[in-house]
Write a structure and sequence with these properties.
The protein is rod-shaped, with a radius of gyration of 19 Å. It is mainly alpha-helical. The chain contains one helix and no strands. It is 93% helix and 0% strand.
């Protein structure tokens, strides 16, 4: 395995991990916002 291929696979894994973390943060923020809005809307 060449060094450039190893570096590329590492970058790809890091990018996919960052995208997954971003998606999890987005879902958590949307869930929190929806829960806050729903509780205040019913009050």
């Amino acid at each position: 395995m060449s060094v450039s291929h190893n570096l590329l696979s590492m970058l790809q894994a890091g990018a996919s991990r960052a995208a997954l973390a971003r998606a999890q943060a987005l879902v958590a923020a949307a869930y929190y916002f929806f829960g806050y809005w729903f509780s205040h809307r019913r009050a």
